[in-house]
Structure formats: structure tokens, C-alpha cells
Write a structure and sequence with these properties.
alpha+beta; two-stranded antiparallel ribbon; Barwin-like endoglucanases
């Protein structure tokens, strides 16, 4: 019974060494009986190169942008955006020219300081040829929201950055 426990321990240590990258020193080699097993083992670690996934930027970011708006009657709710999703409240367009885009597609953010827009999660899902450098074009269909947005620069709070 004691030999089975020793063998289970040995198998467990070998499995752990294999799975975690540990190397045994001295080499255990072959043995003729369980009595030949060493009573202690020296365990050394070997360096392992691990490629970590790209870190998702979770820092709070604030950015000042110049907003414009688009919406009905020229661009009705449900019409497909450049990303293929239907336009709706919270949809945002950026410049078609990647060099002029202030935010990458897929970025989510909230607008600060405008009561009528504070509860909306905005997502960059569209592009527009009329959207210039440093601008975002927000889809809105409510006159009160459009008036509140105005035409002055606004501060946005970026929640997640999309991929460029």
C-alpha cells in the first residue's frame, strides 16, 4: 500500500513538472525498485516565454471633440451603417479617412455635461464623407437632444477603445 502511495506521488510530481515547466535536477533516470527513489527532490524553474494578450485599455479617458449630428429624414433609423449594423440612437460616425478619424470603429463612450444625452451609450459604427478631422457625427432623432448637443466642442468619456 505504501508503494502505491509513493508511486502516485512520483507520477503526480512528474505530471506537475511536465505541465508547469519545472525541470528536475538531478535527473531521476531509471530505477529498479521504489526503494531507489530519492527521498527529496530539488526543483528548479526554467524561464518560459509567454505572449500575453494585448491589454485592453481600461483607463478612464476624456477627449474633446467637435460634434455634428445626422438623422431623419436623410438617414432613417434602421438604415445600415458602415459596420453593417442598423443605425439607432447612440450610433456615431467618424471620418471615412482613417488618418482623420478621432476615434476607431467600435469605440464606446458617454458624453459629459449634456443632461439630455448623459444616459446614452454611444458607439462608433459608421463613417461619413462629410465628417472632418477631430469631429464625430452623432445620430439623433429628437429635436431636444439636437438642440442640447449644439455646435460647440464637447467632452466625451471613453469607456472602451475600438480597434484602429
Amino acid at each position: 500500500m505504501e508503494r502505491i502511495a509513493v508511486m502516485k506521488t512520483y507520477v503526480f510530481l512528474v505530471l506537475v513538472a511536465f505541465l508547469t515547466g519545472f525541470v528536475f535536477a538531478p535527473t531521476l533516470g531509471s530505477f529498479s525498485s521504489f526503494d531507489d527513489l530519492p527521498s527529496t527532490l530539488e526543483v528548479r524553474t526554467k524561464p518560459v516565454l509567454v505572449e500575453l494578450p494585448k491589454r485592453i485599455d481600461r483607463q478612464l479617458r476624456h477627449l474633446t471633440v467637435l460634434p455634428t449630428h445626422y438623422g431623419p429624414p436623410d438617414f432613417l433609423e434602421g438604415k445600415l451603417t458602415a459596420s453593417g449594423t442598423p443605425v439607432q440612437l447612440g450610433s456615431v460616425a467618424v471620418s471615412q479617412d482613417p488618418q482623420k478619424r478621432v476615434l476607431p470603429m467600435g469605440t464606446t463612450f458617454r458624453i459629459e455635461g449634456i443632461r439630455e444625452l448623459k444616459d446614452i451609450l454611444f458607439v462608433v459604427v459608421d463613417t461619413g464623407e462629410a465628417v472632418g478631422e477631430g469631429q464625430i457625427d452623432i445620430w439623433l432623432d429628437d429635436a431636444g437632444q439636437i438642440k442640447a448637443l449644439g455646435d460647440e466642442p464637447i467632452v466625451i468619456h471613453i469607456i472602451t477603445m475600438g480597434r484602429p
